[in-house]
Amino acid sequence: MNTTPARGPKIVRRIVVTVLILGLAGLGLYWFLSLAPGAYSLAPSGGYGHGHGSVASPSTDIASLIDDPARPADVQLRIEAQLNPSGGFMLNGASPGPEIRAVKGDMVEVDFHNVDIAEGTTLHWHGIDVPAAMDGVAGVTQDAVKPGESFTYRFIVDDPGTYWYHSHQVSHRQVIGGLFGVIIVDPEGGLAEQEVTLPLHTYPGESRTIAGWGTGRGAEQRVQAEPGSVWRVRVINTDNPSAFVWTESARLVAIDGHDLNEPALFRDKKIRLGAGARADLEVTVPESGAARVQAPGVSLILGDGDPAMLPAPAQELDLLSYGAPADVGFDVSQADQHFNYVINRRPGFLNGKPGYWWTVNGRIGHAVPPFMVKEGELIAMEIRNKSADVHPMHLHGHHFLVVSRDGVRSTGTPWWTDSLDILSGETYEVVFPADNPGIWMNHCHNLPHAVDGLMTHLSYEGITTDFMLGRKSGNEPE
Predict the structure, then answer these.
(1) What is the DSSP letter of 450?
(2) For the segment 63-121, what is each residue's pLDDT rounded down to a tens digit?
(3) pLDDT surpasses 70 at 218
């Protein structure tokens, strides 16, 4: 009789143990590779990135990309950032911070001081295509301004429109906490209509507000307006989620600081604003006395009287077909480079932390390579949202032109935007000229999404930065 013990169970056990060891080793390697260095630079090098594969020589330091340093400022002010004793943050003792007004062509100079925000802070000029050194992104264009320190921002404003500014250091916490303000650039000669600004903001623990209206933040505000008067209502979504705005009748005259071509009067439509987006409405006060402009939870009344609350329209105004086409100065079909920006989500590690993270082209966090471009190129990008959420995509330093959505071509006004909502399952094709050298954040402006991985950058060949990111750097832009 053969009394040799059976080898089968032992072999199976060894195989199982081996698989477990290899699996744990692989998981450990995956974890290790997710760790960002203690301090690292976003300066591209040696073929890392989509598109062109090397840094041109000689290189240009991003800190040198500024407007005329000898030119005197046309608009000059000091802004102080500090903690709010009752919670959150303030700029010059309030939130939002001071409204900045300038005229097309002005040199704006802001002397920015951090009083007591321990983690540091910055100011980013959302939607204004500033020179790269002035973009206000901690670890990319500057170091975070620490308590007792200051930084001077100087830039020329060439495009009239509605913009805003906000922190880009720990932005997912500082912006919602109050570190933001409005900047308006007027055309030469001013506007024909009167105007009012509506920054929509939800402070922690509060309902949505029209921020900055006196000491109280009520749900309804009123502006004195004569019957028949025409108003430009500048709506700014400073929140993380999407917002909608509607009124009885209006024209949508601008999106994200760009005027629309031949905007028609519309009714029974609402306008979508992704996080960071702006919409300028032209509203005429009726002879009956007053007009109401609404967003969920808040409203503005222009004139006397008490116009009824309007239910939110079921349909959105579609900018693919609104207004009339116009020449944009280039052939959208003749792009020099084509990029894919695929948004999704998967489990994994983000800087060593396990979780369910947002991905860009299947990668997470600092593992996402930049999009590499050359100055003077025309860039096409297909942005596809394969996730179940909405993502307001924001590209710094540029506006992009919407060419199509889900294969349907734009037939209306040229739709230039810098903060575009991409709904679940949607695919947008956009183009833009690479005409502003720098290293530019390209991220979701639902800021908790950005801090959870939905961010990368657009980098010009030949541009370098000495500023650092990572836990040892003190810089944390999102």
Answers:
(1) H
(2) 999 999 999 999 999 999 999 999 999 999 999 999 999 999 999 999 999 999 999 99
(3) no
DSSP string, 343-366: EEEEEEEETTEEEEEEEETTB-GG
| Lowest-pLDDT choice from 18-27, 63-72, 259-268 | 18-27
In degrees, rounded to 5, the angle at the alpha carbon of residue 307 between the alpha carbons of residues 162 and 305 is 100
Q: What is the pTM of this model?
A: 0.92
What gap in Å lies between CA 188 and CA 74, rounded to an integer? 14
- Residue 34 confidence (pLDDT) above 70: no
**Is beta strand 378-385 parallel, antiparallel or unpaired with respect to 427-433?**
antiparallel
Report the alpha-carbon distance of residue 303 to residue 290 in Å, rounded: 4
User: How many CA atoms within 13 Å lie on the side-chain side of 257?
Assistant: 26
Encoded tokens for 272: 């979508």
Three-state DSSP state, 378: strand
At 238, list the tokens: 């400073």
For 160, 162, 189, 196, the CA distances from 104, given in Å and listed in that order, are 6, 12, 10, 19
Half-sphere exposure of 404 (CA within 13 A, CB side): 12
CA 422, 423, 424, 428 dihedral sign is negative
pLDDT of 404 strictly over 70: yes
> 81 and 168 in contact (C-beta within 8 Å)?
no
- Is the pLDDT score of 23 beyond 60? no
Sheet strand arrangement including 107-114: 89-91, 75-83, 107-114, 150-156
Contacts of 385 (CB under 8 A, 6+ apart): 343, 391, 422, 423, 424, 425, 426, 427
Nearest in space to 426 (alpha carbons), one of 404, 456, 451, 442: 404
Spatial distance between the Cα atoms of 94 and 439, rounded to a whole number of angstroms: 32
Each residue of 176-186: pLDDT tens digit? 999 999 999 99
Task: State whether residue 132 is helix, strand or coil.
Answer: helix
Please report the DSSP string for 451-470 in residue order. HTT-EEEEEETTEE----BB
448 vs 182: CA distance, rounded Å = 22
The predicted pLDDT at position 54 comes to: 46
Rounded to 10 degrees, the C-alpha dihedral 323/328/333/336 comes to -140
Q: Report in angstroms the alpha-carbon separations of 350 from 35, 115, 189, 467.
A: 7, 32, 51, 21
| Helices and strands: H and E segment counts in the chain | 3, 35
